[in-house]
Design goal:
There is one protein chain. Helix content is 40%, strand content 17%. The protein is α/β, with parallel strands linked by helices and 258 residues long. The protein has a single domain, classed as Alpha-Beta Barrel (TIM Barrel). An eight-stranded parallel sheet has the order 1-2-3-4-5-6-7-8. The longest helix is centred in the middle third of the chain and has 17 residues. It is globular.
Length: 258
Amino acid sequence: MLVDSHCHINFPDLASNMDAVLQSMATNNVTHALCVSVNLREFPQVLAVAEAHDNIYASVGVHPDYEDEDPVSIEQLVHLAAHPRVIAIGETGLDYFRLTGDLEWQRERFRTHIRAAILADKPLIIHTREAAQDTIRIMQEEGARQIGGVMHCFTESLEVAEQAIALGFYISFSGIITFKNATNLKQVAQHIPLECMLVETDSPYLAPVPFRGKTNQPAYVKYVAEEIARLRGITLEEVAQATTHNFFQLFKQARPCN
């Protein structure tokens, strides 16, 4: 069985076809999925999906690209994270690709999320794009090692992966790993320990080959796992077993199938 450790099935492309999305997951042995929050305005939608389905969990947080969001407080995040279906804080982090200028507000928001995660005792979901050095630095300064988490949709170097792993974080691979030009990322997947690895779709984005350019969905996490298996010279079953075990080790509030 497989787990999609990061998706956005509350987004319209998937939410409007939820029954088919869930059926496709079951058909492809994807037993669970984590529906990830990107802002607090839409958090009720994320939570509603998790409340309606035993095999879907939620996170709470504000994505670094949401510049116009109202300031978020530690207390607010901790309060929302207390819900039993919320198993993580995020996604949070830094993104220097889409936004430019003075991004100190982004770094402060990231620090707020880390502090909230430590207080709430729930792991972090971290997004980083063209900001790896600052991301790792802030994780170190804020003691993110105390709570751990996952570097989602990882696209950085092996060195960054090793720095994150040293802080107690898992490395999560998305459909990007199946792209022909993802040479460096494929090397990361070959070299890091399997026990530090998760798989995800980030759906509805980043559909893997052979669906690249189409709407992604949690069922397609199978293709991510297949590519990792190919790169490492092991079976799909080994990747599925390891990454599923890792998911439940990290997100201890989640429950595997009976």
